[in-house]
Amino acid sequence: MAFKIKYNPDLDSLTSKELKLLEKACEAVRNFVSKSDKINQTNYKTRDAHVTTYLTLKGTFVANQTFEEHHIFSRQELECLIRISNAHMKLVSKKRAIPAYGFSVKISDDNQTIANFPLVNFPLFPINNVSQFLKIFIAINRFFSGNVLQKFWNLIKVARNFILISPAFFHRSFMVEVFKFLKNRNNFILSFDYHSIGVYRLGNHLVKLKLVPKNVPNKVDENRIDYSIQNYLKENDYELELMAQYCYDLKKQPVNQLNTIWKNSEFASIGTIRITELIDKNNQWVENLSFNPFENIEELQPVGRIQKLRDEAYKTSFATRKNNNL
């Protein structure tokens, strides 16, 4: 019988060089968000990623009582809030856009956060090197928030660093998933599976997460994405299965190699999310929400070096938005 790998804080550790780059990245986030109303031509400060909100939904999360670690959740049925978005740093059209979608899930008990799971419709991430990722992230933020000359130099920095990491794009797992994604790029936004980019704790074990919709068509007639979601939910129930894939072997299920599909580990159902209500996407309360996974209870915290970067970046973005949107 295979034994599940237990969480070890060493999986999250960053070097002093990486921590210094993270400080620069947070400053770049702060600068972008402080200018985001002008960049995106809005009357409020926006996020620095997943800026476009397609729709926000309320629902319930019902924990699967046959799942061996269901006791992690305080009750069998919990409140659930979902924000569906586009990954771009700038506002994009509600009509067809690059299909890089976000599906952020907040599970709570009487307004007390149990878990934030920011999920996306592509299961892998091409960059494993923390320093190179931070350099690209800094340059992209500076590109969008800078003047013409700064845009030029930062575009060069982005291109140079993408050349350095380009071998990671040609990993077999990553290429296979890219071809699948391109084949399904025009599918209905609610029909995609949504994945955790990295790893989370589940109790004291390590898992990847996936949301799988139930009985949703791949194609719909409406081209405008927010309307297609609204129209579908008016006529249909929408349920998704939240699933976990355990780590048994760090070679076959690597925590810090995010461009690789985990092998020899089946997904198990944690519970079901059922949508019950639509929220006005223009409600400022929605835009001020945070989906920082480091606000999760201890048993559901993110794990990994790239994941670790998200904590300070999320906090910086949220604090800058909150202070300026009061």
Automatic annotation (TrEMBL):
InterPro entries referenced in this protein's UniProt entry, alphabetically: Catalase_sf
Superkingdom of origin: Bacteria
Record protein name field: Catalase
Source species: Epilithonimonas pallida
